[in-house]
Amino acid sequence: MNKIEHIGIAVRDLAEARQTFSRFLGQEPYKEETVESEGVTTLFYQVGEVKIELLAATRSDSAIARFIEKRGEGIHHIAFGTSDVEGESERLRQQGFVILNDRAKAGADNMLINFLHPKGLHGVLAELCQEKN
Ligand code: ZN
Fold first, then answer.
1. How much distance in Å is there from the Cα of 80 to the middle of ligand 1?
2. How far apart are CA 59 and CA 23, in angstroms?
Protein backbone atom coordinates (compact mmCIF):
# COMPACT_ATOMS: atom_id res chain seq x y z
CA MET A 1 0.00 0.00 0.00
CA ASN A 2 1.39 3.35 -0.90
CA LYS A 3 -1.31 5.93 -0.24
CA ILE A 4 -4.78 6.63 0.97
CA GLU A 5 -6.69 6.73 -2.29
CA HIS A 6 -10.11 7.78 -1.06
CA ILE A 7 -12.51 7.84 1.84
CA GLY A 8 -15.95 6.33 1.22
CA ILE A 9 -18.96 7.95 2.88
CA ALA A 10 -22.38 6.28 2.90
CA VAL A 11 -25.29 8.68 2.31
CA ARG A 12 -29.02 8.23 2.16
CA ASP A 13 -29.87 10.78 -0.52
CA LEU A 14 -27.20 11.38 -3.14
CA ALA A 15 -28.66 14.65 -4.48
CA GLU A 16 -28.88 16.12 -1.01
CA ALA A 17 -25.38 14.90 -0.05
CA ARG A 18 -24.03 16.34 -3.30
CA GLN A 19 -25.34 19.78 -2.34
CA THR A 20 -23.91 19.55 1.16
CA PHE A 21 -20.47 18.27 0.12
CA SER A 22 -20.19 20.69 -2.81
CA ARG A 23 -20.88 23.59 -0.46
CA PHE A 24 -18.48 22.16 2.11
CA LEU A 25 -15.61 21.48 -0.30
CA GLY A 26 -16.19 24.50 -2.54
CA GLN A 27 -16.24 22.36 -5.68
CA GLU A 28 -18.43 20.04 -7.70
CA PRO A 29 -17.75 16.29 -8.01
CA TYR A 30 -15.70 15.30 -11.06
CA LYS A 31 -17.56 12.07 -11.65
CA GLU A 32 -20.82 10.24 -11.01
CA GLU A 33 -20.85 6.52 -11.62
CA THR A 34 -23.25 3.67 -10.91
CA VAL A 35 -21.84 0.21 -10.21
CA GLU A 36 -24.83 -2.05 -10.90
CA SER A 37 -23.20 -5.18 -9.49
CA GLU A 38 -22.81 -3.42 -6.12
CA GLY A 39 -26.17 -1.66 -6.14
CA VAL A 40 -24.50 1.69 -5.61
CA THR A 41 -24.16 5.11 -7.21
CA THR A 42 -21.00 7.04 -6.40
CA LEU A 43 -19.87 10.65 -6.62
CA PHE A 44 -16.20 11.56 -6.51
CA TYR A 45 -14.48 14.73 -5.35
CA GLN A 46 -10.74 15.34 -5.63
CA VAL A 47 -9.39 16.93 -2.45
CA GLY A 48 -5.65 17.36 -2.90
CA GLU A 49 -4.15 13.88 -3.20
CA VAL A 50 -7.16 12.12 -1.73
CA LYS A 51 -10.65 11.60 -3.10
CA ILE A 52 -13.95 11.63 -1.30
CA GLU A 53 -16.41 9.01 -2.56
CA LEU A 54 -20.06 9.45 -1.69
CA LEU A 55 -22.01 6.18 -1.89
CA ALA A 56 -25.77 5.83 -2.14
CA ALA A 57 -27.71 2.59 -2.53
CA THR A 58 -29.65 1.96 -5.74
CA ARG A 59 -31.59 -0.91 -4.18
CA SER A 60 -32.60 -1.99 -0.70
CA ASP A 61 -30.47 -5.15 -0.59
CA SER A 62 -27.17 -3.45 -1.42
CA ALA A 63 -24.34 -3.38 1.12
CA ILE A 64 -24.67 0.40 1.46
CA ALA A 65 -28.40 0.18 2.21
CA ARG A 66 -27.71 -2.42 4.89
CA PHE A 67 -24.87 -0.34 6.35
CA ILE A 68 -27.08 2.77 6.64
CA GLU A 69 -29.91 0.75 8.12
CA LYS A 70 -27.61 -0.59 10.84
CA ARG A 71 -25.30 2.32 11.52
CA GLY A 72 -26.71 5.38 9.82
CA GLU A 73 -24.89 7.65 7.41
CA GLY A 74 -21.18 8.31 7.75
CA ILE A 75 -17.71 7.01 6.97
CA HIS A 76 -18.04 3.58 5.37
CA HIS A 77 -14.51 2.66 4.29
CA ILE A 78 -10.97 3.87 3.77
CA ALA A 79 -9.41 2.92 0.44
CA PHE A 80 -5.70 2.23 0.24
CA GLY A 81 -3.94 2.45 -3.11
CA THR A 82 -1.61 -0.27 -4.28
CA SER A 83 0.11 -1.07 -7.57
CA ASP A 84 -0.73 -4.78 -7.16
CA VAL A 85 -4.10 -5.54 -5.57
CA GLU A 86 -3.76 -9.34 -5.96
CA GLY A 87 -0.25 -9.42 -4.49
CA GLU A 88 -1.27 -7.19 -1.61
CA SER A 89 -4.38 -9.33 -0.94
CA GLU A 90 -2.21 -12.43 -0.81
CA ARG A 91 0.27 -10.76 1.55
CA LEU A 92 -2.60 -9.78 3.87
CA ARG A 93 -4.13 -13.29 3.76
CA GLN A 94 -0.78 -14.64 4.88
CA GLN A 95 -0.85 -12.10 7.71
CA GLY A 96 -4.15 -13.59 8.85
CA PHE A 97 -6.52 -10.91 7.56
CA VAL A 98 -9.81 -11.91 5.97
CA ILE A 99 -10.09 -10.65 2.38
CA LEU A 100 -13.72 -10.53 1.30
CA ASN A 101 -13.41 -11.60 -2.36
CA ASP A 102 -11.26 -14.38 -3.79
CA ARG A 103 -10.28 -12.12 -6.68
CA ALA A 104 -10.27 -8.36 -7.05
CA LYS A 105 -13.27 -7.01 -8.91
CA ALA A 106 -14.14 -3.93 -10.92
CA GLY A 107 -15.01 -0.92 -8.77
CA ALA A 108 -15.94 2.67 -9.54
CA ASP A 109 -13.45 5.18 -10.96
CA ASN A 110 -11.48 2.69 -13.05
CA MET A 111 -10.24 0.60 -10.13
CA LEU A 112 -9.73 -3.05 -9.32
CA ILE A 113 -10.79 -3.48 -5.72
CA ASN A 114 -11.01 -5.86 -2.82
CA PHE A 115 -11.95 -5.44 0.84
CA LEU A 116 -10.63 -6.50 4.23
CA HIS A 117 -13.14 -7.67 6.78
CA PRO A 118 -13.53 -4.88 9.37
CA LYS A 119 -13.53 -7.34 12.29
CA GLY A 120 -9.82 -7.95 11.74
CA LEU A 121 -8.99 -4.24 11.58
CA HIS A 122 -10.58 -2.74 14.67
CA GLY A 123 -13.84 -1.98 12.95
CA VAL A 124 -12.35 -0.29 9.89
CA LEU A 125 -13.51 -1.53 6.50
CA ALA A 126 -10.41 -1.20 4.31
CA GLU A 127 -10.63 -1.24 0.52
CA LEU A 128 -7.58 -2.11 -1.52
CA CYS A 129 -7.55 -0.51 -4.94
CA GLN A 130 -5.37 -0.59 -7.99
CA GLU A 131 -5.85 1.67 -10.98
CA LYS A 132 -6.70 -0.31 -14.13
CA ASN A 133 -4.43 0.45 -17.04
ZN1 ZN B 1 -14.33 3.04 -2.30
1. 9
2. 27
